[in-house]
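Slide 14.
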Amino acid sequence: MEKKRAIFDIKLNAIQDTDNPTKKEVEFILHDFLVSHNNSIISKETALKTLHTLKDMPIVGKYYPVTYGGDDALGSHEVYLDKDRQTGESIIGLDTVPIGVFTEDAYITTIKDENGDDKEVVAGKGVLWASRFPNVVGLLKEWNENGIDIVSSMEILYDSYLFKDGVEEILSYVYEGHCILNSEERGDHQKVYPAYDVSKITKLVAQAVNQENIDKQLNDKEVHEVEKFKKVFELSHGDIRSRLYGKLDPTLGENEDSWISDVYDTHFIANLYSWDEENTYDKYFKFNYTKTETDVEIDFESKAEVFLTRNWEEVVPEAVQTQLNEKDQTISTLETQVNSLTETKNNIEVKFNSASEKVVDLTAKVAELEPFKSQFEAKQNEEKLVEKKEFYSKKFEALKAADKFESEEVQELVGKSIFETDEGKQAVLQLNSMLVDLVDSVTEAQLNEGVIREVSSKRENLIPASNDFESRFSL
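Slide 15: predicted structure.
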């Protein structure tokens, strides 16, 4: 089976100084054995088989340096669609660089959860190359000193999994890498939230605050983080801006450059300028764009030159402003009601269309089953007719009227008696009337031949209690 890539968000567990200035020791809690916020789970039994694959795996990151008017930051996994250099097939690329490595196998340890109970988790130890990436390590130290959770995310390759009740259980996997993520909102770079609540800092650099304070800070933030949890593949605002640059800049000339000033949900504003002697300009343009979970596409045909405007407005008196605010609130309420009604209407239309489709499907199925229904009913009627003929044949023979039973009239009535209709009920009544007449004839003949007396040895009521035809006249 082809291996698939999965990403699980966690947090940096420890970062410590060493005697070697070229590296910093780090420790991560990778995950527990419960369902994560992205509906994935790795059991303890599965993890035990894979702990050894963490050693020598890279610790990676994407560093964004300090820009004018902003702060430096880390990115995410920087996922993008790439192509295999040999086959040309689409593959997933990760635009990060190694900044460290795991030096030991992963291991299972026990921590205290937010309720003070013991919980088993998977953890791993490694080093960061501090002398090669001083800015990254410096940013991590700053976050530690400010009590900010340093979130990270393990990357795995897996080829066996099971879906049950909406949860994906990973059955067989190996570690592929580990990415330190942006841990707070810094300028245009949004924070990335963890998928596992148990992942938290337990050890810090020598100057960091103690464990008790860290645990309290983490416990105070966990609910908030869960509410704002983002999937790994969701592009942040900074990701979108960088991808827009990646699509826009290749279309510019040798002496042209760009600066994206504003980014909105469906369009952005770019300052395009040229220092070419034959074509010098400095203008602003609006471009429409669309985004997916991993990339953006610019509609270059929508390019339109724009300019920034500024107006002087009169100060509105407080009483008038209050009235305007009330009207705005009324308008907002009405818009909400209209949107709710529109949504209800759309839901009704969807349900109606679904019901119509089901009616059409059921009608088609009924038409398909109609021949079988007719065959079944014919067989049932045939069996009923046999039973009725046998029943009435015995009655007529007992009354010495077999010839009468074979008559066309009687046979026609027997045929009708199998149906639960007024005509069928009328046929049964006529047949029973014939039998009553035959009984009267037989009784009269017997009286003419003489009285026959039978002596019963039982002293019980010889007159039937029931008054129906079967009890009175059956032989």
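Speaker note: The first helix runs from residue 44 to 48.
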